[in-house]
């Protein structure tokens, strides 16, 4: 018998729903959700079969090993393979003893691997006292605190402000009914109390939302706030803050179970809030979820979590990234994820269970797992972070930098020159070459945004929302001798370091860039001189900067190491911040706060070229590329356009015979024989490209611009072959790009 025959109409479903004692009534939305679950059977809690086509899902390619450290559940040790004993679960309410057991295991067996108390020196300004139900200053508090990560959503909810801050410090100030807190916050307060905690950090209560000065400081401290939390409660179910933590206090969960009858047909049972079961028939499934090993089950839960509204929001990115220990609520279940282990509530993790202790990572590997423990500027890792973050969405586009400020503030300690609207100053020429992987959308500030908040320049990735191609920044980390792609099970490189640089693509500065907050404001130069001098360390025996040592491998190839990381090998020394070395260095740069310039200025060369044939090059992206030709139709270069490959024939007709204005960004070169470089070059197999003739392919990086008054806007970025550009770009121009 099918689901449609068993549940014939809404009234029949309603008759089966009676409120549990903790609920006053069942909302219409809850009824609709139950019906939707019954008829569609999407992702029940214990039936976590994922029917999406992962091969075509370019946004959620969770199997890539270099992304594993930043994704939920999957980056764990091999010893979690196997199957722990399974527990019977309460179908309506979460047993907090499971969570307490996870916390004890992590406290007693994982130590510094999961943060411990080593970072407790820095605290937020305010915390919620869950016993007194009021705000208390965090600076005088010695006890540990929990943090909450959730989706605000489009609902009106109570917030701390400058006017009510004093009142919120009085006992019972947060007790319902006035003010009414969203269910998610109510449940989080209840859960912290049940877990034996005293304090909770919630952004909308602990940051006065109308105090811009305090808000700016706290946004920059997001990294340490979540890093220092005892654990982070993640409310990943639902689309707003009034969804609640299902199964904790205000909202019972609806747990699916499954099994096979004697005739081998599958049955699925949904436990309703009135403690009655609704049993449905369904075609046989290929595998009983209860027969999965632990790793397979957690990886499937990871894929489900990646498709939640919580994971899609920009603000939750750094909350997930910096939290060493997370308690996930999603799909009517609760899961655990820390640096060493991940657990599902159905697993029996009693102290006698095997494989619950430390992961076999060295102290150095453990520290590098947390980006705020980095000792040198890792541009490769930063590119991956931007790629993951930029596909997420924001209710207000002008928050793009605010929601990423914790990452920028943390990394600015080891990136000399800090960041300029999201681009690292140290690698600025290479960072300007960012490209989309799929078409991106121009971010536009909301009408209520202030001028100071709306920093969305077209020349930076932060001005666009969508799938950023991290491979377009490969020339920026050519200083890494072996690429920092960590394996899924350990943080060690998957292969021994290569005797040659992992990247033969190099970007060389040719334009003296400067930046400013306003068009007529003070201009600050962007220094690139170090890049032109770097190669001399590898070709001569000149004295190295302090802290650097020169080495040779068995083939005689020179490489370098720095005292701050004895394991990392570099192709040449790079500038480091003064905090990266235990010894003072005249070349060390003091850390700077991230800056938010709107305008980029430079004196450069300009040329006009015609559009040639449009094409698609799948190894590089899912975007359309177009040839650039001179007036005689000779191939000169290529641009990657911000449109899908399916539209390339329409683009061909639209651009036929048109010209574009190009300005020079920098120079570049790549070894033509290196097949691995194909992932970054749309023109790799184009008939007119001189790359096919061996040796070194030399070119200039160019930007297609469009003028809006006196300010140029980025349209696309590409390359023009060196001799063609030198022949065609005879005009110098002062350009201001906004």
Question: How does this model look, in words?
Answer:
With 738 residues, the protein is of the alpha+beta class. 20% of the residues lie in helices and 23% in strands. It contains 19 helices and 30 strands. The strands form seven sheets. The protein has an eight-stranded mixed β-sheet with strand order 2-1-4-3-5-9-10-11, with helices on both faces. The protein has a six-stranded antiparallel barrel with strand order 24-25-26-29-28-27. α8 (222-228) crosses α11. The longest helix is centred in the N-terminal third of the chain and has 14 residues, at 96-109. Mean pLDDT is 79; it is low at 1-65, 274-289, 484-500 and 582-587. It comes from Schizothecium vesticola.
What characteristics describe this protein?
738 residues, alpha+beta, 8-stranded mixed sheet, 19 helices, HET
What gross morphology would you assign?
globular
| Range of helix content | 10-25%
How large, in whole angstroms, is the Cα Rg? 28 Å
**Overall pLDDT score:** 79
Percent of residues in beta strands: 15-25%
Q: Number of DSSP strands?
A: 30
Our measurement of the CA-to-CA distance between the termini, rounded to an integer number of angstroms, reads 63 Å
* Low-pLDDT segments: 1-65, 274-289, 484-500, 582-587
The largest pleated sheet is described as:
8 strands, mixed
Structural class designation: alpha+beta
Specify the number of helices.
19
Strand order of the largest sheet: 2-1-4-3-5-9-10-11
Protein name: Heterokaryon incompatibility protein-domain-containing protein
Biased composition (Low complexity): 577-587
Region (Disordered): 573-597
Domain Heterokaryon incompatibility: 145-319
């Amino acid at each position: 018998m099918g689901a449609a025959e068993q549940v014939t109409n809404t009234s029949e479903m309603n008759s089966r729903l009676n409120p549990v004692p903790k609920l006053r009534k069942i909302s219409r939305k809850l009824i609709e959700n139950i019906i939707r679950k019954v008829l569609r059977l999407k992702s029940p809690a214990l039936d976590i079969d994922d029917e999406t086509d992962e091969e075509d899902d370019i946004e959620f390619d969770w199997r890539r090993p270099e992304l594993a450290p930043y994704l939920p559940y999957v980056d764990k040790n091999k010893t979690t393979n196997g199957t722990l004993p399974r527990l019977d679960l309460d179908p309506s309410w979460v047993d907090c003893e499971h969570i307490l057991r996870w916390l004890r295991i992590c406290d007693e067996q994982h130590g510094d691997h999961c943060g411990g108390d080593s970072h407790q020196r820095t605290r937020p300004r305010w915390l919620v006292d869950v016993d007194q139900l009021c705000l208390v200053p965090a600076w005088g508090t010695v006890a540990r605190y929990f943090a909450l990560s959730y989706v605000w959503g489009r609902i009106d909810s109570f917030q701390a402000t400058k006017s009510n801050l004093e009142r919120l410090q009085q006992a019972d100030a947060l007790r319902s009914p006035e003010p009414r807190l969203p269910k998610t916050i109510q449940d989080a307060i209840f859960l912290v109390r049940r877990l034996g905690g005293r304090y909770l950090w919630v952004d909308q209560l602990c940051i006065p939302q109308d105090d811009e000065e305090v808000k700016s400081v706290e946004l920059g401290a997001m990294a340490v706030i979540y890093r220092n939390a005892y654990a982070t409660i993640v409310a990943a179910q639902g689309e707003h803050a009034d969804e609640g933590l299902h199964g904790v206090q205000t909202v019972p969960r609806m747990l699916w179970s499954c099994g096979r009858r004697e005739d081998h047909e599958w049955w699925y049972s949904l436990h309703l809030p009135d403690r009655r079961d609704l049993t449905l028939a369904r075609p046989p499934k290929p595998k009983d979820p209860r027969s999965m090993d632990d790793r397979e089950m957690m990886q499937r839960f990871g894929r489900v979590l990646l498709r939640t509204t919580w994971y899609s929001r920009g603000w939750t990115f750094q909350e997930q990234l910096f939290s060493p220990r997370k308690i996930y609520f999603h799909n009517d279940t609760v899961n655990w994820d820390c640096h060493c282990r991940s657990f599902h509530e159905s697993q029996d993790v009693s102290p006698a269970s095997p494989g619950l202790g430390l992961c076999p990572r060295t102290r150095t590997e453990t520290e590098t797992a947390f980006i705020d423990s980095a000792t040198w500027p890792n541009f490769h890792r930063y590119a991956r972070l931007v790629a993951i973050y930029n596909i997420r969405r924001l209710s207000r586009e002008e928050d793009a930098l605010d929601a990423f400020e914790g990452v920028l503030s943390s990394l600015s300690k080891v990136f000399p020159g800090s960041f300029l609207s999201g681009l690292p100053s140290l690698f600025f020429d290479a960072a300007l070459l960012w490209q989309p992987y799929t078409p991106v959308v121009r971010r536009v500030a909301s009408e209520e945004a202030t001028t100071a908040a709306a920093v969305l320049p077209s020349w930076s990735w932060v001005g666009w929302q969508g799938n950023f191609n991290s491979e377009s920044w490969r020339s920026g980390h050519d200083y890494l001798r072996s690429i920092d792609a960590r394996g899924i099970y350990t943080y060690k490189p998957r292969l021994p370091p290569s005797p040659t640089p992992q990247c033969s693509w190099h970007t060389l500065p040719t334009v003296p860039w400067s930046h400013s907050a306003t068009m007529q404001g003070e201009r600050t130069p962007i220094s690139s001189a170090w890049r032109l001098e770097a190669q001399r360390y590898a070709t001569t025996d000149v004295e190295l900067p302090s802290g650097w040592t020169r080495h040779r491998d068995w083939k005689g190839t020179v490489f370098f190491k720095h005292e701050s990381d004895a394991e990392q090998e570099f192709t040449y020394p790079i500038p480091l911040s003064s905090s990266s070395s235990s010894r003072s260095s005249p070349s060390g740069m003091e850390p700077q706060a991230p800056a938010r310039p709107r305008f980029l200025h430079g004196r450069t060369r300009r040329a006009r070229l015609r559009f040639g044939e449009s094409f698609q090059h799948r190894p590089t992206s899912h975007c359309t590329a177009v040839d650039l030709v001179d007036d005689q139709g000779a191939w000169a270069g290529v641009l990657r356009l911000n449109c899908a490959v399916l539209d390339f024939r329409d683009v061909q007709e639209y651009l036929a015979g048109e010209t574009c204005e190009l300005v020079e960004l920098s120079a570049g070169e790549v070894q033509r024989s290196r097949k691995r470089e194909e992932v970054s070059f749309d023109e790799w197999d184009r008939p007119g490209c001189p790359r096919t003739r061996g040796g070194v392919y030399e070119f200039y990086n160019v930007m297609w611009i469009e003028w809006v008054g006196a300010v140029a806007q980025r349209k696309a970025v590409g390359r023009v072959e060196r001799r063609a550009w030198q022949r065609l770009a005879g005009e110098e121009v002062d350009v201001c790009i906004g």
